[in-house]
Design a protein that fits this description.
This protein is of the alpha/beta class and 188 residues long. The chain has helices at 37-46, 48-63, 75-100, 136-148, 157-166, 170-180, and strands spanning 8-12, 18-21, 27-32, 107-110, 117-119, 125-128.
């Protein structure tokens, strides 16, 4: 894509760059303090396909009233989304497990009505495939959250300190999921 994508930069104490599409279809880039504009421009260009897809979804949500029911997916469509989710979560889990110094077992992709992810005591991870329609920083948060359970199998202050050490502004992603998680059920 050659078209320049307009975006807003939000600097914070985070360690990585992440892109978020707001509910009103704006692109926000969250970046660590000191991250250069040229690096962010390059990152946005690299993610332009992802941004375009999610902007289109956000625009569609803006135009349509809230869906009264869950849209039906064919088995083929669902399988395609699950494969995409498996690729994304496998890559992200490998990346963050290295950073956090933790191991994990099997990765399963599911469609859980009440959870976005889970971690068993054996280290097996489950992720909800519908997360692929969330902003990238939200996916990162869910992966880091589940991997943090490899060190703390609870939601204590120590647990959230682990999450915060990797994603200093994780609260933004957690809040997005709480405020907007329902739209992921009407994304397809």
């Amino acid at each position: 894509m050659n078209q320049k994508i307009p975006y807003e930069i939000i600097y914070s104490r985070r360690k990585t760059v992440a892109i978020q599409i707001t509910r009103d279809a704006r692109v926000q880039v969250r970046a660590p303090y000191g991250c250069s504009k040229s690096f962010i421009d390059s990152f946005v260009r690299e993610k332009s396909d992802w941004i375009s897809r999610h902007l289109a979804l956000a625009e569609k949500r803006k135009r349509e009233p809230a869906a009264s029911g869950q849209p039906a997916l064919t088995a083929k469509e669902r399988a395609r989304y699950i494969k995409i989710a498996r690729d994304i979560f496998t890559r992200k889990t490998e990346y963050y497990a290295r950073i956090m110094g933790v191991s994990y077992g099997r990765i399963s992709i599911r469609e859980q009505k009440t959870r976005w992810g889970s971690c068993s005591s054996q280290g097996n991870l489950n992720f909800n495939w519908r997360l692929i329609f969330a902003p990238e920083n939200v996916l990162d948060y869910v992966v880091v959250h589940e991997l943090a359970h490899r060190k703390e199998m609870n939601h204590s202050k120590a647990f959230y300190a682990i999450v915060e050490s990797v994603l200093p502004d994780y609260r933004v992603s957690r809040k997005w999921l709480r405020d907007n998680g329902d739209v992921l059920w009407s994304a397809v």
